[in-house]
């Protein structure tokens, strides 16, 4: 297969044609920059916290955010990385080593917070206890841990934005998961900028890889030579998300453009969903125990802390 | 033809006696969705139409990471 732009050897076939290595890298980086500009994900005055795990998505978003800041002459001393070590044996410790090396090489300050120090237990110990009480799956517990720690420590460090490595596949899965579970209250909280509106204590989360597929991200890291451990999370196949992921990839193979179609449809509906959510959910307040943003009196993280303390 | 396959996901290496010719054929034979992997030969990315040769060593890299 030849590149549609230069007749060089193609490395990927996209919906609109095939691209060689240099043209794919340009296409990918331009797409990320355009996403940041179109949705105004970064402001010159922002202090940016990048949620980083050392996986392909977070290293890509770290690298390209730094490149974006340099390109637009935005001071990059306003940038730092925050890693949540959930405490998953034989998994996270490998990616953290890659992350530490990457941050050192690119001169990005890194802060690592463990579930052990915040919740009193690593995920491997916390999950069975919480599951016994609540039947929550490991990905649910992990998600609560991560969101809580990210928001709390990003805010403590004075961040005005949290950048995450969520890609097009992650988003398409989340949209379908909300649909399947009739999570209408959460439906308006996805998109390139998470959340409905500004809220005390909540640091806005933004997604520069919003329009990049998982396959494109992996290819980009491979072509750029990023050192990444590709061990899969041992819990990932237990979750609802995994089933949706397999389904969407099967659809994508047979009907190219399925995932992009989901994103395009969602973005067209998003203003209405946000409006609906604002009208029906004006009750987002602070948790009575920890004062972190919550739509319940006691947030999920504090509920889990309580179970773990028993 | 004989092809040696390294699968990154389970970190296994297997040898396959294979009578078809392209990367797409190989993935179909292995029941792997091409959306979920990248395929390389000697560190070079192969698109699905690429022809395979006898004694090739192929790496199948998982696109899905993390959790």
What would your notes on this structure say?
The complex is a heterodimer of chains A (310) and B (67). With 310 residues, chain A is α/β, with parallel strands linked by helices. Chain A has a single domain, classed as HUPs (Rossmann fold), CATH 3.40.50. Chain A is built from eleven helices and nine strands. Chain A has a five-stranded parallel β-sheet with strand order 5-4-3-6-7, sandwiched between helices. In chain A, a hairpin with a 6-residue loop joins strand 8 and strand 9 (293-294). The radius of gyration of chain A is 19 Å and the shape is globular. The N and C termini of chain A lie far apart (61 Å). The model of chain A has no long low-confidence stretch (mean pLDDT 90). By secondary structure, chain B is mainly beta. Chain B has one domain: Roll (Ubiquitin-like (UB roll)). In chain B, 10% of the residues lie in helices and 40% in strands. Chain B contains one helix and five strands, in the order E-E-H-E-E-E. Chain B has one helix at 23-29; strands at residues 2-7, 12-17, 37-41, 44-46, 56-62. In chain B, strand 3 (37-41) and strand 4 form a beta hairpin. Chain B is globular. Chain B starts with a strand and ends in a 5-residue tail after the last strand. The mean pLDDT of chain B is 91. Chain A binds chain B through residues 1, 10-13, 18, 21, 53, 55-57, 91, 95, 139, 142, 214-215, 218-219, 222-223, 228, 230-236, 239, 245, 249-250, 252-253, and chain B through 8-9, 33-36, 38, 40, 45, 47-50, 61-67.
């Amino acid at each position: 297969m030849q590149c549609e732009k230069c007749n060089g050897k193609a490395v990927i076939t996209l919906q609109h044609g095939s691209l060689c290595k240099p043209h794919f890298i340009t296409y990918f980086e331009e797409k990320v920059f355009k996403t940041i500009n179109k949705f105004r994900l970064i402001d010159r005055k922002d202090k940016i916290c990048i949620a980083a795990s050392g996986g392909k998505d977070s290293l890509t978003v770290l690298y390209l955010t730094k490149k974006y800041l340099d390109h637009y002459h935005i001071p990059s001393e306003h940038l730092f990385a925050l890693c949540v070590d959930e405490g998953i044996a034989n998994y996270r410790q490998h990616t953290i080593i890659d992350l530490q090396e990457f941050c050192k090489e690119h001169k990005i300050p890194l802060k690592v917070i463990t579930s052990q120090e915040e919740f009193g237990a690593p995920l491997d110990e916390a999950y069975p206890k919480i599951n016994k009480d609540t039947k929550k799956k490991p990905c649910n517990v992990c998600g609560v841990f991560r969101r809580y720690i990210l928001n709390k420590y990003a805010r403590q460090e004075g961040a005005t934005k949290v950048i995450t490595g969520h890609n097009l596949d992650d988003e398409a899965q989340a949209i379908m998961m909300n649909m399947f579970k009739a999570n209408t209250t959460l439906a308006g909280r996805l998109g390139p900028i998470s959340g409905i509106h500004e809220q005390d204590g909540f640091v806005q989360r933004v997604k520069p890889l919003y329009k990049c597929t998982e396959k494109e991200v992996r290819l980009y890291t491979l072509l750029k030579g990023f050192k990444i451990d590709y061990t899969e999370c041992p819990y990932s196949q237990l979750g609802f998300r995994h089933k949706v992921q397999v389904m969407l990839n099967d659809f994508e193979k047979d009907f190219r453009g399925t995932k992009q179609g989901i994103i395009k449809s969602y973005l067209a509906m998003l203003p209405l969903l946000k409006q609906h959510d604002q009208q029906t959910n004006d009750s987002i307040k602070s948790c009575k125990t920890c004062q972190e943003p919550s739509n319940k009196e006691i947030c999920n993280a504090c509920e889990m802390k309580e179970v773990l303390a028993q | 033809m004989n092809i040696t396959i390294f699968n990154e996901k389970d970190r296994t290496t297997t040898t396959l006696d294979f009578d078809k010719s392209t990367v797409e054929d190989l993935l179909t034979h292995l029941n792997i969705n091409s959306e979920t992997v990248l395929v390389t030969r000697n560190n070079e990315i192969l698109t699905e139409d690429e022809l395979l040769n006898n004694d090739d060593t192929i790496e199948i890299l998982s696109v899905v990471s993390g959790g």
